[in-house]
Design goal:
Structural class: alpha/beta
Radius of gyration: 20 Å
CATH topology of the largest domain: Dehydroquinate synthase-like, alpha domain
Shape: globular
Largest sheet: 6 strands, parallel
Helix content: 40-55%
CATH class of the largest domain: Mainly Alpha
Strand order of the largest sheet: 1-8-5-4-2-3
Distance between the termini: 38 Å
CATH superfamily of the largest domain: Dehydroquinate synthase-like - alpha domain
Order of helices and strands: EHEHHEHEHHEEEEHHHHHHHHH
Length: about 375
């Protein structure tokens, strides 16, 4: 295990009825902007719970933060927030709303175009932010990261902000989610774990087993959620798994991380508008296959511990682990091939060009260049 420093300042408030605690968690006298996506929170009762809890506060609402939040929309929110002298933000929604609100929180203290913050990679100052999570997936409710799109140029980049002050997670808010969004969220959570886990063996037994536990939980609960999405305990497991997958816990001990699947997935979203979780389900099996030599030992460990694969040659066990991973995504109802989404060579060439133009190399060994990204995507045709 390597040296590390770990701190996660977000207060997690979990369970049924916890939205009512907003009144006591937000400091009195704050001018609060509440951010939303579409209108689903009005249908499932979350909106009314939030408004009732904030009766004693001056509030401004901003609606319309998209899946894959856009700088074009967030510029409007920043302008409104500055006009209203907002000094506290509450994101009510899933990862996209939370990510977008993180940029708003930085943009309120920035004089230039908020897109400059995204391209710089890190915010220099932010207005305090809290969240009410309604769609588990990204872990944004308990981490400092965010991903923002620019529709004008079909680009998508990540940047670092501050952690939310607190996040409220009530599993009942997930009962009315569309089934495809639940599937995307499970896939996103699964790949978040894999990006931190599927690198090299032997760094930390504790973190390996913790990561494997989250993966096994997702595999176990996915069919149960498919049968009954109103099962409080199963949705609670899903919600907590999504948070634990990307709040820094399973990366303790200096665990090497990959993230090349995410970087390739971001480009597919930017170019074709596919849901983020869906792109990961398509790309990950290709990443595993093309990088099977450098990741082979960890793939074998993953196959044995998570999928109970013990028989066959080394290559056969690796093949089976990749196959089981792809079949898990397909069991969620997701396609796992580019061709199934009408995506072909033209897109692969463009993503290779973008990687090469930026001079990037992703992965724990910095081996995923534009050329390797092309091989991974070609594997997924």
């Amino acid at each position: 295990m390597y040296n590390f420093i770990f701190q996660n300042p977000t207060k997690l408030i979990f369970g049924k009825g916890m939205i009512s605690r907003l009144e006591s968690e937000i400091p009195s006298g704050k001018r609060v902007m509440i951010t939303f996506g579409g209108g689903s929170v009005k249908k499932n009762g979350v909106y009314r719970q939030v408004k009732d809890a904030l009766k004693g506060f001056y509030t401004v609402e901003f609606w319309g933060i998209e899946p894959n939040p856009s700088i074009e929309t967030l510029r409007k929110a920043v302008k409104l927030g500055k006009t209203e002298k907002i000094d506290f933000l509450l994101a009510v929604g899933g990862g996209s709303v939370i990510d977008g609100t993180k940029l708003i929180s930085a943009g309120l203290l920035y004089d230039g175009d908020p897109w400059e913050i995204v391209r710089s990679g890190k915010a220099s100052g932010t207005v305090p932010l809290a969240t009410v999570l309604t769609l588990p997936a990204t872990g944004s409710e308990m981490n400092p990261g965010a991903v923002i799109s620019r529709y004008e140029t079909n680009e998508k980049f990540s940047f670092g902000a501050d952690y939310p002050v607190f996040s409220i997670l009530d599993p009942e808010t997930t009962f009315s989610l569309p089934k495809n969004q639940v599937a995307y969220g499970i896939a996103d959570t699964f790949v978040h774990v894999m990006e931190q886990y599927l690198t090299v063996p032997g760094v930390s037994r504790t973190m390996d087993h913790w990561a494997e536990g989250i993966l096994e939980t997702l595999i176990d609960i996915a069919p149960k959620i498919e049968r009954n999405q109103n099962d409080y305990n199963m949705m609670a497991e899903f919600m907590l798994s999504a948070t634990l997958a990307l709040n820094g816990f399973i990366a303790m001990g200096g665990v090497p991380q990959d993230w090349s699947t995410h970087m390739i997935g971001h480009e597919l979203t930017a170019l074709h508008g596919l849901s983020h979780g869906h792109t990961l389900a398509i790309v990950l099996p290709g990443t595993m296959n093309i990088l099977r030599e450098s990741k082979g030992d960890k793939i074998l460990q993953y196959g044995q511990r998570v999928w109970k694969i013990t028989g066959g040659s080394r290559e056969e066990r690796i093949d089976q682990a990749i196959h089981m991973t792809e079949q898990f995504f397909r069991s969620l109802g997701l396609t796992t091939r580019l061709g199934e989404e009408g995506i072909g060579e033209k897109t692969i060439v463009e993503i290779e060009r973008r990687f090469n133009e930026r001079g990037v190399a992703f992965g724990e060994n910095k081996e995923v260049t534009g050329t390797v990204a092309r091989k991974i995507l070609t594997d997924r045709l």
